[in-house]
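Appendix C. Worked example: Sensory transduction protein RegX3
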Amino acid sequence: MNILIVEDDARVAEALSAYLRQAGYTTHRAADGASGIEAVGQDTEAVILDLGLPDMDGLDVCRRIRGVSSVPIIIATARSNVESRIKGLHAGADDFVVKPYDVRELIARIEAVTRRARSAAPSPDESSNVELDGLYIDFANRLVLAEGAPVELTPKEFDILAVLARYPGVVTPRDRLIREVWGTDWTGFSRSLEVHVASIRRKLNRPSLIATVRGVGYRLTAG
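Step 2, the predicted output written as structure tokens:
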């Protein structure tokens, strides 16, 4: 497994890299946020991200990586307050560990988030396309067209739309969306889900396409 470590402290990064390599992982390091964003590629299978970077806040790095990739991201930082954890998860992180941490716990979390990522990959029966009232969704290529024009969605936005599109006209509960898109049952992602749905509506320029069913979830509708 190829892991990107975004960490400005060379000693911390080297110690972590040595332990991960000993555990059978391949690692490479980025010393700042810009390098970290640039280093994410098709072969990157997980990102360990520090928040205290010299050139930009780690939360911004997390958002920018999440905007172009669905790679699992684990934030590893000395910021231990609950607000920081919530902000990190809302920025698109999959998990959060507080320094100093036991590397064995970090490895367990790496295995957990990558396992969820693999299980969330499209299955063969999801390779077909969906067309609904001018909206076209290509699951295999993660492509969305609205009235023939491409719509640029983030990975999480596409995943939410894809879940709703599998059951057009049927209400999908919030907890099911959170479980399928984020791979967790933690309701703390509820606000993040609302933000992502609002962004999808705006990008599609079709506010009524995703209907909110108060107290339950969302439904993809025509019109």
